[in-house]
Write a structure and sequence with these properties.
The chain is mainly α. Helix content is 69%, strand content 0%. The chain contains twelve helices and no strands. Helix 7 (102-130) packs antiparallel against helix 12 (210-238) and helix 11 (191-206) packs antiparallel against helix 12.
């Protein structure tokens, strides 16, 4: 069995032994051909995993006895961004889903379930390993928020703004492209993958936090392989292949209205002194 096949077919027990570089290679393999929504949903049905099957008992020992205070602080700061990012997308994606095709709605429903599962993953980690207080998911989110870095605030603040724009008209193709580009292509494809590699490489090389490593690794091949694919499929569907620019406000198929002064001069030419 090849390394990429192991990534595709591994259960939680097998994922623990995967190398993050093999996971990244798997993620990037099919993005060149952009699988359609139906294929992506089929993969979801075969790739689901149970977040409550994760065992954090060794993680608790590593956290309390092996990791330094500096390591714990850095780790909590990184994890807090993912904790709140998963939850934010979980509540925003239903708005994005409304304006898509029936096939895309089916695919998006699987991603919403993914995001909910990932939110529970970080909730369990913060409760059982870090020991943050809270009797509800929201209480633990509140407790971890102080650890969120400015690196998180920028891209996810923009995403929240674009989600609000989309709520006003879920079928606005330009707004869908803006939100989809920020979420699927930028956040999922660049900072999430980069920070994931740093975090999981640390766990693997140090031999710490096997429960966290297993759960976080499990989110990557399944989630990013399908979510980046869904982003590419959505971008393809929401943009006009004949050349219309839908990301901005201009439609190049219609002449742009000339804005003139009363005397006929273009607006960019100053009035006589």
């Amino acid at each position: 069995m090849s390394k990429l096949s192991k990534v595709a077919d591994s259960d939680l027990r097998g994922i623990r032994d995967l190398d993050i570089d093999d996971v990244l290679a798997y993620v990037h393999r099919d993005l060149k051909r952009l699988p359609d929504y139906t294929e992506l949903y089929r993969r979801y049905l075969t790739q689901r995993w149970n977040v409550y099957d994760l065992d954090f008992s060794q993680d608790v020992i590593d956290w309390r006895q092996s990791m330094s205070e500096e390591e714990r602080e850095a780790f909590v700061g990184i994890s807090a961004g993912f904790h709140h990012g998963e939850r934010q997308v979980e509540v925003e994606l239903p708005v994005f889903m409304l304006g898509g095709s029936e096939e895309s709605k089916i695919c998006m429903s699987s991603q919403i379930e993914d995001e909910a599962r990932h939110t529970v993953l970080f909730d369990r980690f913060y409760r059982e390993v870090v020991g943050l207080p809270g009797n509800s998911v929201q209480a633990v989110l509140d407790a971890s928020f102080k650890h969120v870095s400015e690196t998180f605030v920028g891209p996810f603040g923009l995403l929240a703004y674009q989600a609000d724009e989309l709520r006003r008209d879920p079928e606005d193709r330009a707004a869908r492209v803006r939100y989809g580009t920020t979420h699927f292509l930028w956040i999922e494809g660049v900072p999430a993958l980069s920070v994931m590699k740093i975090t999981l490489t640390y766990c693997r090389e140090r031999g710490f936090l096997p429960g966290y490593y297993t759960g976080f690794t499990a989110t990557r091949p399944h989630r990013l392989h399908r979510h980046l694919g869904a982003g590419g499929a959505g971008y393809r569907a929401d943009t006009d292949l004949e050349g219309r620019q839908v990301c901005g406000r201009r439609d190049h198929r219609r002449p742009r209205e000339r804005r003139l002064h009363a005397d006929g001069r273009p607006r960019h030419v100053a009035e006589p002194a």
